Amino acid sequence: MEYEILVAEALLDSLLRGLAVDFVAVALRSQAQDGSIELLQCSPDLNASEIEAGLKQATLGNSRYAEKLDIGDLRLPLFITPLDHDGVSGELVIGACRNGFPTEIERRIISHAVLQARAGFKKRPGTLLGDSRRTAAREVILTEVIASIPGLAWSAGPDGSAQYFNDHYLRYVGHDAASLRGTGWTATVHPDDLNGLVAAWIEMLSSGQGGEAEARLRRFDGEYRWFLFRTNPLVDSSGAVVRWYGLNVDIEERKRAAVALQSSEIHLRQLTETIPQALWSATPDGAIRYLNKKGLDFMGVEASDLTDGFWWAEGLHPDQVAGIIRTWQHSVATGEPYNVEVLYRRRVDEDYRWVDVRALPMFDDDGNILMWYGSLIDIHDRKVAQEEMASSERRLQLIIDTIPGMVWSALPNGGGNFANRNFRTYLGLSMDEAREWGWASAVHPEDLPELTATWQEMAETKEPGECEARLRRFDGEYRWFICRGNPLVDASGGVEWFGINVDIHDWKIAQDDLREAQVKLAHMTRVMGMAQLTAAIAHELSQPLSGILVNASAGLHMLSSEPPQLESARETVRRTIRDANRASEVTERIRALYSKSDPVVETVDLNAIAQEVIGFAHSDLRKNGVRLTTRFAADLPLVRGDRVQLQQVIFNFIKNGVEAMNGTVGRSKDMEIATVREDADRVRLSVKDAGPVFDSAMSEKLFSPFFTTKSNGMGVGLSVSRAIVESHDGHLWAEANDPHGATFAFSIPVREGGDPRMEPHASK
């Protein structure tokens, strides 16, 4: 049975090195050779002789074992499995001084190791020569066993340089063996754990003794999990280390459980010592034997009243008595934690209040319940508040889902976090699809770049933003939305985005209709002003036409004299041509003013435009007794704009001023037209009148369509004027003078080059 011994020793080595156990033993019996083998390996902390004696008392070798083995003061749970093969019967016995042994993963490791050992028994070589051959064979068997273990197994040379990793190890870390050999495996260890692990490994190498250490190992998907690194050396007959074998066991759940247990113990200790709540304890059969003062006061009993039975059930709500007693009896019988929320009558006022009652059992080493420890916490106010909060949350959810808009929230990286029902219904997406950027596919391709750029700017600046874009409805139709988002920034600088997408499709269409109406309104305003301009036009044309007639008559007279006065006639003809050109210009300006032609954007002098309008309005000013003064800036820069439109604005200002002063009595009707350079980039023109006291509260309403203070006005002139000024990127306003009268003014930017951005309605 020499080869069986090698296989058994390799099996013991692999399991003692790979599992956190205290000893491993094998008993083999050969029917053919009428012999038996008993092998034992144990941790350095235990005495092998005591274990052997204990195993004999447990009738090792007769297939009859106790469930636990007593070694001194220790009680070790045992795990036994058969190790039979052709002609040989046997058992494998493993002991570990810890609760929960063996775990599911340990059962799998043991099962695979036993299967590999049985396979090893069948590979019996013809002859085994010498210790070196024996050691080599044992190493081969041990390597085969380790390779089959469903854990992270590895081996290293005497100097600690990694040489071999089983398939489980390679699959877990997602690397090939070549990249892990030597010290390459350290790249998969958590940086915070690497120094401690390397130090422990160096200490093992220096001492030649196996050991263990804990560290986090990175899985192929990037997640780190806690592992127990266990190592043991394989030595030759001289005691020199031939190879190191190791097994990394996943202890992530154990670590978490340890942390949870520690937290629970701390919490229970703090609860017992400081919490102002009812605390109690009960015997293993469920009889309450202790209540702290808070509990006694709440239940209205004395310590002497704590007897056997269910006396405490008298305070329960009648509808809950049977169910609560049944639940408590179940916990007492099974040892399961007890936790119920019940309505209990408070003795001081006889009111039923919601209380949270919970208890945990304390076990001895054999798993028997020693005592129950529990608490009784008044949660009535919290319960009521939770019900109100749940109702409020349901109402809030209903409000969010019924808001006539697409409400959403997003994470800092833009990933979706929430989308209300309207959002999901419109796009035809589920909540998961909305969270996974599914909404981006619904954005019109022409609008996606601007929407993406706006979002990136918002994410970088953590400032609110908005953008208009077309979103595809579930039926394929695109509609215009305005998408707005606001950040909610916490104290640490973290941000969550909340926003709403509002359907503005119909509004966009209405805006187009409005622009068309404004075009017609602007033209109508010019036509309506024809009566006021008629006199000014007649006066403006009468002078050049009269000059033409006089000069023509004088020219005929000069040509008919003897001799003809040719030089004087030539001068007369020149004056005639001059007056004709002047009349032509006036006619052209009038035609442009009343036509619907597109705006002519050019570089113009605002002072010159104002002078031309004064010429138009001269007769009207004189007829109404208005004394006009001008104050034009000499350094006024040129602007880019439509001459006719700017003339219309100035004419409206003058006309309003004249009409405002019609009822002025006892003071002169003064009007001043002024230009000034506001700053390097803007110029301003103002018309100041001496009319009645101006109400500043009406300044904004004056420029609204169809608002008027005149009995015969329609309220369109100033609204059109504002549209014209705004189309020139300008601003228009009115303000009160001291002590009376008003000033109407506008400012527009200086244009060094390029056309102003003018909306179609502003040019009509």
Descriptive terms for the model:
single chain; 764 residues; alpha+beta; Beta-Lactamase; 5 domains; 5-stranded antiparallel β-sheet
Structure description:
The protein folds into 5 domains: 1-150, Beta-Lactamase; 158-274, PAS domain (Beta-Lactamase); 275-384, PAS domain (Beta-Lactamase); 403-503, Beta-Lactamase (2-Layer Sandwich); 598-763, Heat Shock Protein 90, CATH 3.30.565. 41% of the residues lie in helices and 26% in strands. It has 20 helices and 27 strands. The protein has a 5-stranded antiparallel beta sheet with strand order 2-1-5-4-3, sandwiched between helices. It is elongated, with a radius of gyration of 50 Å. The termini are far apart.
Question: What does this entry show, briefly?
Answer:
It is built from 20 helices and 27 strands.
